[in-house]
Amino acid sequence: MSQTIEEFTADLASAAPTPGGGSTAALVGALSSALGEMVGHIRQEKLDESRLTELIAEMTVSRTKMLSLIQEDENAFETFTVALKMPKETEEQKTKRAAEMLHGLIVAAQPPLKIAQTATKILHQLEEMKKYSSKSLLSDIGSGTALAEAALKASVLNVYENTRMMKDKDQAASLNKTTDDVLEEGLKISASLYPAMQKAARGEKA
């Protein structure tokens, strides 16, 4: 959290295992929410709407959540890597390692799933924020939508990568189903919201 953008992207570009796709998705999600908040704060100067104030506060919570998930994702990945390095010489060691690896994969899948869920929440919030936006700010709603969709798509890939390696296929299927539902919900919003904002930015009837 204390890194500069330059430092974070340099770490991301390195061969180090973290930060990776999950942390990056969370950062992009935080930026998407911030754009929605910006629209809300600008419109507050002209609109006396209690719901607008509430919506801004809800988006602030989403942004803060995304930022916390950057570190949570890195910590969760470490849980899996510790299990991966466990000895596997004896049958007892193999059994213990397999159990810890499953646990590590389940733990590692949680932050990207939370990122996906939060990204979908942000898409809902952006859709509502559109009602309070001026014409000149609809492009920012569209930009936030594009970023939230990117965060959603990127984060679910990280869930699937973890479930793919799980020996417990029932556990994997359950996590995949939850993830699939979140992805479908979020993409349904962006599939209608982004094209409308694109038309608005071009001066066309949305």
From TrEMBL:
UniProt-recorded name of the protein: Glutamate formiminotransferase
The organism of origin for this protein: Ligilactobacillus pobuzihii
Gene3D superfamilies xrefs: Formiminotetrahydrofolate cyclodeaminase monomer, up-and-down helical bundle
Transferase found in the keyword field: yes
Residue stretches making up the Cyclodeaminase/cyclohydrolase domain: 4-179
Record-level Gene Ontology MF annotations: transferase activity
Key words, A-Z: Transferase
Signal peptide feature range: none
Pfam families listed in its UniProt record: FTCD_C
